[in-house]
Structures are given as C-alpha cells and as structure tokens.
Design a protein that fits this description.
Number of domains: 2
CATH class of the largest domain: Alpha Beta
Helix content: 40-55%
Shape: globular
CATH topology of the largest domain: Aspartate Aminotransferase, domain 2
Mean pLDDT: 94
Structural class: alpha/beta
Number of strands: 14
Strand content: 15-25%
Strand order of the largest sheet: 4-10-9-8-7-5-6
Order of helices and strands: HEEEHHEHEHEHEHEHEEHHHHEHEEEH
Radius of gyration: 23 Å
Largest sheet: 7 strands, mixed
CATH architecture of the largest domain: 3-Layer(aba) Sandwich
Length: 439
C-alpha cells in the first residue's frame, strides 16, 4: 500500500504565488509554515551564506547558523576571478581613489572615470556603438525592456527567458507573446500574426545567448533575420556566456558571428566578471541617451559603485589576455570532465557544455531528499525548483569554475551519485513502506 508524501516533500512555490485574503501580511503565513517545516527538516537549502567567499572549497551556514563545508559547485565565478590578485588590487585602488560609494545616479554625478571607461570597453568588446551601465544585471534586463517598450508595442520572447526579462515585459505591455524554447518558427508565427494586424507599433524579440537552467543557446542569426523581415528589434541577454565561452570570450554572439549585428545586448557582471552590475549595449548613441533618462533602474538608482566598475574593467582586461584564454580552456576542461563523469555515473545532464551543468532529478520530493544528503556528504550545490524551472523538472545546477581540480570534480560526482541513490531508496521507503508481519 502506497503512502502519501509528507508536507516537506510536497508542494512548490506555485501554490503560494497567488494568495487570497484582505490582510496582505497575514495571508502569507501559510507559505511560511510550509517553508519553515522544510527548513527544520533540512529540505530548504536556500539563503545560505559563505564564510570565505566563492572559492572551490567553501564553508556555508544556513539561517540558523548550522555549518557545512565541502567542494563548492554552487557559486557563480566561472573564471575564478573573485579572488584573483589583480582583481583585488583593482578593488583596493578604486576604494583609495573614490571611496566605496557612487553617491549618485548616473544622471547626477554618480559616474566615475572607471565607469565611463567600462562603458567604452563593453562597446568595443561587443562591437557596439554605446553602452549604459546598471547597478545589477536584473536591473539591466528589466530596464532595457521597460525603457524601450510602450503599452501599444509587442514583445515576442522565448518562454524560458530570465525573470528580469519576463518582469520587464509584464511591466511594459500586456502584449507579450511567448514562443516555445529555442523554436524560431514559433517566433515567426507570432511576428506574422502581429504584423498582419499592426504595422505601426514596435516589436521587441527577446532571447538569451545561453539559458541559465538548460545550458542551451538559440540560433541568434535566425532570430535577427526574422527581426529584419518583420521590422522588429532583437534583444539578447548574454549574462552567462560573455567572458566565459568562446576562444576570445565573446560568448555565443561571437561564436555565431553576430558581433555588432544584434540591436540590443544586455548582460551581467556577476557570473564571470567578479562583481555586481549589468549593462545594456546598443548600436545607436540615440538609444543610449534615451535609456539613460527613460530606463528607470538606471535613472533612479545609484550608479555602479566605483569598486564594482574598477573590478569589471580589470576583469575585461584579464579576459582579453593570454591568461583569459588559458582560464577559459581550463574551465572547459573542467566542464567536459564533470559532464562525462556524471553521465558515466548514470546521471542525466542538461544542454550543451557550459559552466552550468544541470543534473536532472525530476520530482521535487526526490530532489529534496538528495539535497539533504549532499549537504551532509560535503558538496555545496544549488537545488533548483519551480518557478526557476517547470514543476516536475527539479535539478541541481552545478556551476563550474576554472580553478576546480580534477579531484574536486571526482568528489562532486561521487557525492551526487551516492546521494541520488540514497535519496531514491529513502523515497521508495516513504512511498512503499515495508509490510509488517501480522501478529
């Protein structure tokens, strides 16, 4: 006789997205009860803190101060630049020169000579005309869309586009149309339908250079051709591939020979460039100037900190150097090694080789059981559930660094394999408890 799952292994954030009740604060207590039950049982592996930063080995603490440590495949530091001596030196020099705070929005003296130089460097790196900086990558994605699109315009976007893009679209217009992931023909269908009835208003087509959960990439040139055909504008988010992929570090836009051919390129410094912040690059100075004053996350936020601008600028210097080539080669060796070992261990991984290695779990119940196991066994990794991925497609998103060693890759593979087997056995015992002999 099968037993039902306990509450800690059931449910998802989906059940708590829309809450009912007149009291805005009281009505969220059901979510907290469910979350806290998971937390107390060891099934809430989020909001942890690191004691020594994003290194290949990490010690982490949860919100109650409970500590675990182990090999770290949970941090976004793809080229292992966060603790690079030149990066640290650039940060210290910026603090000595400017202090620690920008103390103003970009419109009101928040820029520094480093941030101005960084805008020029990004434009040059991507073969674009101009760039606008943002305090975070999320602000850049949201602000790029909200700054350009008006209520009568249209957005046609990949249905797995990042939350910052989805929320920017929702805030900009009700005319948002999603096409199936990576299916350019789906984009064509929407473009044809829109232009059949409206040739006056704008259309923004939105995708990513590398999707952060599935580790796959679109045909960017094909989308650009569609935009030319239907008088639309193409935006590509390069947060996860810029700097870390390609011989020259220019990601999939570079590998697909699309440098300078995409209308709007937005990205983040937080994956490869060792700091916070984001950017929007454009082929037009007019667009840059408009975004500075009509894209609210840059107009009405303090500018990127002087230290962050200096760090990102130094990271670009390293990425373009011989050392950058070597670090990308080391990263790719580690990526391929991890993927090969996981598959050899009987585990399924998503997508194509990148610093994101998603390990399939499937059910949320199994994933939570495995998550508790790996924390105890010495692996730091992030469990991903709905809404970051569809319900029933839970996974671990392992994030590879250039400085990971082969021994650490072997350890991670061994732990996740053993944890998977232990979790699956535990789940089977819960669902199908052994029969007791009658007295």
């Amino acid at each position: 006789m099968k037993h039902s799952l306990p509450g800690t292994l059931k449910g998802s954030l989906r059940e708590y997205r829309t809450m009912n009740g007149a009291d805005l604060l009281k009505r969220i207590e059901g979510f907290y009860d469910w979350q806290n039950e998971r937390f107390q049982a060891g099934f809430w592996p989020y909001a942890r803190s690191t004691n020594l930063g994003p290194k290949a080995m990490a010690a982490v603490s949860d919100e109650l101060g409970r500590k675990t440590d182990g090999v770290n495949f949970g941090s976004q530091d793809y080229l292992s630049l966060s603790n690079h001596p030149a990066i640290r030196e650039a940060a210290h020099e910026a603090i000595e020169r400017y202090g620690v705070h920008s103390a103003g929005s970009p419109a009101f003296i928040g820029n520094t000579t480093h941030s101005v130089a960084l805008e020029r460097k990004i434009s040059e790196f991507l073969e674009m005309e101009r760039t606008v900086l943002y305090p975070t990558g999320f602000a850049a994605g949201f602000g790029a869309i909200k700054g350009l699109v008006r209520s009568s315009d249209y957005i046609v976007m990949d249905n797995l586009a990042h939350a910052c893009l989805q929320e920017g679209a929702s805030a900009a217009t009700k005319n948002v149309f999603h096409f199936r992931h990576l299916q350019n023909e789906g984009a064509r269908k929407w473009l044809e339908q829109i232009r059949a009835k409206d040739t006056e208003n704008g259309i923004l087509v939105v995708t990513e250079g590398l999707f952060s959960m599935d580790s796959d990439t679109p045909d960017i040139g094909g989308l650009a051709d569609l935009c030319h055909e239907f008088n639309a504008t193409l935006l590509v988010d390069v947060a996860h591939d810029l700097g870390s992929l390609g011989e020259d570090g220019r990601g999939h836009i570079g590998m697909q020979e699309m440098l300078g051919k995409v209308d709007i390129v937005m990205g983040s410094f937080s994956k490869t460039f060792a700091t916070n912040g984001g950017f929007v690059a454009t082929r037009s100075r007019a667009v840059q100037q408009y975004m500075r004053y009509f894209s609210t996350p840059t107009t009405f936020s303090n500018a990127l900190s002087p230290m962050a601008a200096a760090v990102a600028l130094k990271a670009f210097e390293i990425i373009e150097s011989r050392e950058g080539v070597d670090r990308r080669a080391s990263l790719m060796r580690n990526i391929l090694s991890l993927r090969e070992k996981l598959v050899a261990a009987g585990l399924e991984v998503y997508g194509d080789p990148s610093a994101i290695v998603g390990v399939k779990m499937g059910s949320e119940a199994l994933a939570r059981l495995v998550s508790r196991q790996i924390s105890n066994m010495g692996l730091v990794a992030n469990l991903v559930e709905f809404p970051a991925v569809p319900k029933g497609q839970a996974r671990f998103r392992l994030q590879v660094m250039a400085d990971h060693t082969e021994e650490q890759i072997i350890a991670a593979t061994t732990i996740i394999k053993q944890a998977y087997e232990a979790g699956a056995a535990e789940l089977d015992t819960i669902v199908n408890p052994p029969m007791r002999a009658s007295a």
